[in-house]
Amino acid sequence: MKSIRREDLPDFFRKIADMFEKHADELCEMDAKLGDGDLGLTMKKGFGALPEVVTELEEPDIGKAIMKCGMKMSSLIPSTMGFLMGSGLMGGGKAIAGKAEISGSGMAAFLRGYADGIKKRGKCEPGDRTILDAVDGAAEAAEALLRSCPDASLEAVADAAAKGAESGAEATKNMIPKYGKAAVHKDAAKGICDQGAVAGKYLVESIADFCRE
């Protein structure tokens, strides 16, 4: 795939939804140990609704359409992760508003906007052991590739982002949790990836899978 167009968005979100359908139980099991136990269901429900949402939108601008999907997700999933995912989509969409399609450079901008949206809404930073560690890792890897290869393809940028997200998630094994129930059970978190970061890794992996098609 050379670029993601406005008409591709239903399939784009369907690919993400399929990923969270596949990993819903795994994420819930991880979350049950250090959280509320509903992470997998939250991600599955939130992204599962977006193919229909974006199909019904009359917004032709790809960035603005993604922003509106983010707003819808925040209202559909009134939870911390729902708000963070919605804010990420709003930030990512804003970063590419006005573009006709998402190219390699557009994907990097989308991921940076996504990370910034999470950072702003969650008041968190990389290293705080959250989903931001995976998404920020994805954005950094995408940006690094474009600095060395400004004409990098969409697929190449997305692949680099997926590797960055995986590294970001893995790095949370050595981080001390600062938020939620995980902060109360710090010892139990040692050597285990943050469940939110794992969800972020799957998010970026699904985007990379879509870009390979």
Strand elements, count: 2
Mean pLDDT: 93
- Main sheet specs: 2 strands, antiparallel
Task: Give the CATH H-level superfamily.
Answer: DhaL domain
Strand composition percent = under 5%
Low-confidence stretches: none
Order of helices and strands: EHHHHEHHHHHH
The whole-angstrom Rg is 16 Å
* Strand-pairing-aware structural class: mainly alpha
Note the overall shape. Answer: globular
CATH architecture: Alpha Horseshoe
Termini separation comes to 6 Å
Number of helices: 10
The spatial strand order of the largest sheet comes to 1-2
Count of spatially separate domains: 1
- What is the third-level CATH name, the topology? Serine Threonine Protein Phosphatase 5, Tetratricopeptide repeat
Q: Which CATH class is shown?
A: Mainly Alpha
Helical fraction equals over 70%
Protein architecture, described:
The protein contains ten helices and two strands, in the order E-H-H-H-H-E-H-H-H-H-H-H. Strands 1-2 form a two-stranded antiparallel ribbon. Helix 5 runs parallel beside helix 7. 55% of the residues are buried.
Could you name the key traits of this structure?
213 residues; mainly alpha; Serine Threonine Protein Phosphatase 5, Tetratricopeptide repeat; two-stranded antiparallel sheet; 2% strand; globular
Layout of SSEs?
Layout: E1 4-5, H1 9-34, H2 39-56, H3 62-76, H4 80-95, E2 101-102, H5 104-122, H6 131-148, H7 154-171, H8 180-184, H9 186-189, H10 195-211
Antiparallel strand pairs: 1-2
Please give a quick description of this structure.
This protein is mostly helical and 213 residues long. It has helices spanning 9-34, 39-56, 62-76, 80-95, 104-122, 131-148, 154-171, 180-184, 186-189, 195-211, and strands at residues 4-5, 101-102. It has a single domain (4-211), classed as DhaL domain (Serine Threonine Protein Phosphatase 5, Tetratricopeptide repeat).
